[in-house]
Amino acid sequence: MADNWGEVPTDNYENPGNTPLPRTQKEIAAHWNERTKQDVFGFEGEVYFGALSSPAADSFIKDEYKGTHEASVTSVEQALSLAKDYCRFAWGKVIDHRGLSAGRSVMKLSAWMWLIGRDDLAELVVREDLYAPYGAPALKALCFELGWPWPEDDPAVRRMVSGDPCRPGCEEGCNS
Ligand SMILES: [Zn+2]
User: Fold this and answer.
1) CA 94 to centroid of ligand 1, rounded, Å
2) How many domains does one find in the chain?
């Protein structure tokens, strides 16, 4: 990743605030079940699982773990903090031209946005017309909405967020 990306402050996981997630356990489990049709690789599922505890989580896990799963994400602040850290990783995948990873990134970010009740952003970040190349326009839109940093000093990224190839004649996938 380009050095000019700068440091992204990582929120304090020890004291993340405790605004409860606006989704109930039942809603999260139902949403996950509904999303499995699109989420064939389970990218979003990883996020929903982190927000579920037993017994709501039990239909998704092996018998030996039923009754024991505890959610690791219970607050809006935790979900946002994880999403923000993940977003930095996602920009790396944009710069490295990793297609499957970029697809995974926007789906996971969409799941976190849904968890915190931001359906608008959950839909924004997976908009097909904002995907190419490598999810860059969608990530930029999400960062703009949340006031998060993005690698705006990188000239290639600046082209990609407008939907253009990283450079004219890119043969690493921007034009495919
Ligand atoms: Zn390219």
Assistant:
1) 9
2) 2
